[in-house]
Amino acid sequence: MATAWIISTYFKTAIYYYALTLGTAKLFKLKSHRPLIIPTGFLLFGMSQLIAKESFSM
How close are the terminal C-alpha atoms of the chain, in Å? Predict the structure, then answer.
């Protein structure tokens, strides 16, 4: 059951990440979403580090 939860969470996160980059590209009227993939990944990584530090500091 835990394995199914981890796999489903991974795919849900991947779909949200794709939708974020695609939606941002459409918002700024870019021809392709590919230039946004790495910068968005860095932003998400940085935000996850900030959130994890706050939740463990309680």
Answer: 29
Kind and range of the H or E element at 52?
helix 37-56
pLDDT in tens, 6-58: 999 999 999 999 999 999 999 999 999 999 999 999 999 999 898 888 777 66
- Which own/partner pairs from 16-22 qualify as long-range (CB within 8 Å, at least 24 positions apart)? 17/41, 17/44
Q: Is the pTM of this model over 0.85?
A: no
Say which residue the tokens 């998400």 belong to. Answer: 44
